[in-house]
C-alpha cells in the first residue's frame, strides 16, 4: 500500500512549509517594485528679483543668512519652502503633471547636504492622489535614496524608495531633480 | 492503487497555492481599517496680541513676511509651529484628550495649500502613545488625505490615512480641523 | 484502500489553514525586533561664539526669539537644523560612525517638548544607508518613542520605533541623546 506514504506527516510538513513561507514572505521578498515611475521636478528659488517665476523661497536661515541669498557655509541652516512643477521629461516648460510641495533644508557646514520632507500631488486623469517623501539628500552624490513614507488616492498606503539625481543645476537659482520612484508596497 | 492520486504533484500545487496566497495577502487586502477614530484639533495663531491663548506661532516666513501676520501671496512660505488641543467634539472648550504637535507650512503662491508634519500625543487612560502624520494639505478642498506614517504606544507601528476637513475658520487667527483617522496596519 | 483518506477535504483544510496563517501573520506578530541597534548623537547648538564646534543652528524662531539664544517660553517656536555626529558610546570624541541630520522644533510653551524629523546617515564599512525618523519628543520624559518611517541601503524599507533618552544636557549648548532603534520590518 504505497499510498500510505501520503500520510499526515507529509501534510504537516507541507503545512509547516506553507506557514514558514507566509511568515517569511516579507523578508525573502525579492526587491522587485510593484510600481515604478520617473518624474522630474524644477525648483526656481526666490532671489529678490524673480518673484514671478520663483517656485520656492527661503523662509528660515541661520544668524549669518538672509531670505534672498543662500547662506555661506554651504547654505547650512537655510530652510526653503517649495511648490515645484513636476514634468515627465527634463523640460521645465513641459506640461506639468503635478506639483512637488514641501521643504528642504541645508544641514551641513562642510559640504552641500539637505533634508527633504515633501509630497508629489497629482490631480489629473493620469494620477490622482499624493506620494509622501522624507529623507536625507547628500546632494553631491550622483544618486541619493530617500523614503516613500506613505501615499493617498492612487498611491494609497504606498511605501518605497525614491532615487534622486540632480539633472541640472544653474547658478544658485535653478535646479532640476530626476526622481525614480520605486514602490515596494502597493495596495 | 487510487491512492497514487495523492501524489507529490498535488502537494506541490497546493504548496504553491499557499505560497501565492501568502505573497498576495497584502495586495488583495480589502481597504477595511483595523481602527477608526475621529478627533478635532484647534489652532489659535499668535498675532502679537493673543500670547495667552495662542497655540501656534509663525517661526519662519519669506522675505516679504513677518512673525505676527500671515504673509501675502496666500501665506506662501509661512512656517507655523503648533501645540493644539485635541478634542472629541468640535468644541474648543471641551476637555482635551491629547495634543496635536508639529508644524505646517504654506507652500503655494496662487492658492492656500500647506504641508504638515505633526503628531497626536496622547497620555490619558483612554489612549497612551502617539500617531505621526505627514502630507500635503490642499486646504481649499473639502476633504484632504494625509498619511499616518507611524505610531508608538497604543498605536505601535500604525500606518494609515487621515482625512482632514476644515470644520471652522475664523479670520486668520482660529481654525479647527476634523481628523478622521483610519489605520490599515495595526499590530 | 486507506490511501483514500488523503482526500481533497484534508487538502482543502490544510490549504485554508495555510491561508489563514498567512493573512494573520502581521497581526499576530510578536513584537520582537528583526534588528536592534544603539547609538548616541551629540548636538552643539550655535550661540554666536562657537561657530567652529557647533553642529546645529537656530534657523527659525518666534517673534520674541532670535538666532543665537533659545527663546523664552520653553523655546516654543525655535527651529533648529542639525548635523550631529553619531557614536557607538557616549563619548563626544569617539570616532563618529555616521551623522544625524535634520531638524527639531520646540513646540510647547509650558514645558520642553520637541518634534523631530531627521535621518541617520551611514557610509562606512559597518553600515551604508540611512534610517529616517519622525515623531514627538516630550523631552522631559526619561524615555520617548518616535517612529522609524523608512530606510535605504542596508536599512531598505525599514520600519520600527526608536526610544530616545537624554544622556547628557549641559547648559543650553550641548545635549547627547541615546537612541535605541528597534526595527520590526526588515527586508
Automatic annotation (TrEMBL), chains A, B, C:
Entry annotated with the keyword Methyltransferase: no
The keyword Nucleus appears for this protein: no
Taxonomic superkingdom: Eukaryota
Keywords: Apoplast, Secreted, Signal
Pfam family, one: Dirigent
Transmembrane spans: none
Signal sequence extent: 1-22
Matching InterPro entries: Allene_oxi_cyc_Dirigent (IPR044859), Dirigent (IPR004265)
Location in the cell: Secreted, Extracellular space, Apoplast
Subunit record text: Homodimer.
Similarity comment: family membership: Belongs to the plant dirigent protein family.
Annotated function: Dirigent proteins impart stereoselectivity on the phenoxy radical-coupling reaction, yielding optically active lignans from two molecules of coniferyl alcohol in the biosynthesis of lignans, flavonolignans, and alkaloids and thus plays a central role in plant secondary metabolism.
This protein's name: Dirigent protein
Amino acid at each position: 500500500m504505497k499510498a500510505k506514504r501520503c500520510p499526515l506527516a507529509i501534510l504537516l510538513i507541507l503545512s509547516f512549509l506553507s506557514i514558514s513561507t507566509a511568515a517569511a514572505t516579507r523578508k525573502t521578498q525579492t526587491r522587485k517594485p510593484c510600481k515604478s515611475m520617473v518624474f522630474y521636478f524644477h525648483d526656481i528659488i526666490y532671489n529678490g528679483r524673480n518673484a514671478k517665476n520663483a517656485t520656492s523661497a527661503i523662509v528660515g536661515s541661520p544668524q549669518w543668512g538672509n531670505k534672498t541669498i543662500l547662506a555661506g557655509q554651504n547654505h547650512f541652516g537655510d530652510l526653503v519652502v517649495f511648490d515645484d512643477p513636476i514634468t515627465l521629461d527634463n523640460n521645465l516648460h513641459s506640461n506639468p503633471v503635478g506639483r512637488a510641495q514641501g521643504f528642504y533644508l541645508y544641514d551641513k557646514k562642510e559640504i552641500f547636504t539637505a533634508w527633504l520632507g515633501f509630497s508629489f500631488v497629482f490631480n489629473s486623469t493620469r494620477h490622482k492622489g499624493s506620494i509622501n517623501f522624507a529623507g536625507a539628500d547628500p546632494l553631491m552624490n550622483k544618486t541619493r535614496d530617500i523614503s516613500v513614507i506613505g501615499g493617498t488616492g492612487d498611491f494609497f498606503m504606498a511605501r518605497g524608495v525614491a532615487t534622486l539625481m540632480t539633472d541640472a543645476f544653474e547658478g544658485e537659482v535653478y535646479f532640476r531633480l530626476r526622481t525614480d520612484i520605486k514602490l515596494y508596497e502597493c495596495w
